């Protein structure tokens, strides 16, 4: 039996760096599992679109697809957009079975990737001392999604024995600049910001700009196409593939 195809589904961005990162993550996933058919797709703002990828897979004879949403929070896109496009795909292709897995999410294992990115930023800025951290994320109108970021920030702060606050690039306060200024008002002068974003784009760029204007000593790059993320994609895929097995 042919294994289900794997589609990594990102939201999409007009910034070409974002699409390049998503494609690189798909390539890293293929490297780990060369036996699988792995394709990257986007909900909007970038190509290829989800339906174009599914159409191509169906034309090649695939009748089972596992979709892993490359989303870090359980906001609108996860709850509405992903289920919608999955239903549309099955409506378009009689006999096609598509299973959307849990989102990529905010796995504690990603904190190791976050630390690596922040160490790179600190070396680049020649910073050797820190007295506070800010965890920057996209933000959501869904308070539960924002609370998940805040919980991860507390875990991260406990790991480093430093005060940490979550900040958001949209939809919820505080912004990264506000978070940095609040720490500096307490007398903390060495505040670094870690970017809990999958890929570069407008929101992470804006978050970094505001943080640096407020006096942050360094801002890390987004998580990117790290092998840890690819392993998480494959873990999500494994669950989705089992769920496609008839019982």
Calculate Rg over CA atoms: 19 Å
Question: What is the overall pLDDT average?
Answer: 95
Structural class per helix/strand content?
alpha/beta
Bin the helical content.
40-55%
Sheet-strand content, in percent, reads 15-25%
Q: Can you tell me the residue ranges where pLDDT is under 50 for at least 5 consecutive residues? A: none
Q: How would you describe the shape?
A: elongated
Distance between the termini: 16 Å
Strand tally: 8
How would you sum up the major sheet? 4 strands, parallel
Number of helices: 8
Oligomer: single chain
Write out the strand line-up for the largest beta sheet, numbering strands in chain order. 2-1-3-4
SSE series: EHEHEHEHEHEHEHEH
Entry summary:
The protein is an alpha/beta fold. The protein has helices at about 15-30, 50-60, 75-90, 110-125, 145-160, 175-185, 200-215, 225-245, and strands at about 5-10, 40, 65-70, 95-100, 130-135, 165-170, 190-195, 220. It is about 45% helix and about 15% strand.
Task: Describe the model.
This protein has 247 residues and is an alpha/beta fold. The chain is built from eight helices and eight strands, in the order βαβαβαβαβαβαβαβα. It has helices spanning 16-32, 50-59, 76-92, 110-125, 143-160, 176-185, 202-213, 227-243, and strands spanning 5-10, 38-42, 64-69, 97-100, 132-137, 164-168, 191-195, 218-219. Strands 2-1-3-4 form a four-stranded parallel sheet, sandwiched between helices. It has a four-stranded parallel sheet with strand order 6-5-7-8, with helices on both faces. α1 (16-32) links the parallel β1 (5-10) and β2. α6 runs parallel beside α7. The protein is elongated, with a radius of gyration of 19 Å. The relative contact order is 0.17. The mean pLDDT is 95.
